Amino acid sequence: MMITAGDPCPCSSGESFAACCGPYIAKERAAPTAEALMRSRYSAFAADAIDYLEDTLLPSTRGDFDRQSVVDWARNSEWTGLEIVATKDGGETDREGQVEFIAHFTMDGEKRTHHETSRFSKKEGRWYYVDGRVGKRQETVVRSTPKLGRNDPCSCGSGKKYKKCCGAAAA
Q: Structural domain boundaries of the chain?
């Protein structure tokens, strides 16, 4: 897909391509944050800028880059929008960062999404994509109170076992 400077940026920022991801993809300047790099990588898929996608991989991970698969995915998809779900670190002064995102695209006439939490690393002043975990980010749940077992005294104070009191109501 040919994207011109005045077109809306594919990353869904609301800015023009020239004011958003265009300068990063054109290598006029480096993305200042992990999120900016994530957005520009999405836009690079839409703009068929495969060299940029490879160049923004952490150099030590480029051996795994399957150029033909990336070309096929980029060219056989219509990129329809990007949602940034969450970011952790990845600011201008950080060295590491994470961005959880949902990429929207259409392939073979079917609307699809790619949900990923990506890791980024900053080396010598430049942000790089390290790797990503596909799927929703899993949060660790920490209980503030101990879990009641079936044979423990019920927490309501009745003196009955949990399974015969409030636990019976939950079943």
A: 22-138
